[in-house]
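Below is how a single chain appears once it has passed through the pipeline. First comes the sequence as given, then the structure the pipeline wrote out for it. We keep one example in the README because the format questions we get most often are answered faster by looking than by reading.
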Amino acid sequence: MGASILTNYEEIGAVLLFVIGLVNLLLQPNLVKKIIGLDIMDSAVYLFLAAKGYIAGRAAPIYTGGVTDASLYINPIPAGLVLTGIVVSVSVSALMMALTICLYRQYHTLNLDEIMMLLRRQEAEQLQHLAAEERPGDLP
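Resulting structure:
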């Protein structure tokens, strides 16, 4: 078992990165830090896929020199999944940052706990305002 741990250091690194990102995502109240934690988790998944797609002694699947034997090449699908995932991850991160900027402009804080407290306060004020408008004694 000890030998397999030493030979699978890419997978161990991916799992450690994923755990670091997950802890950051769960424990940080700051929205930007949560986004960074999610990006770390994304990177861990890409590292894991790249590590699983690599086969020692094989080359990239680029046709050169007339070699047509498929057993000499690595599988290109994990690399394609990683590239697609990176593009999607960058897009999602950009969208989350844009929404975070909108939240900051509205509430002047990036702390998720403070934003929730302000939302509850606004909701309570709106309910009080609606209750004051619907009093039956105010009808003619």
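The longest helix spans residues 77-107.

See the next section for the split statistics.
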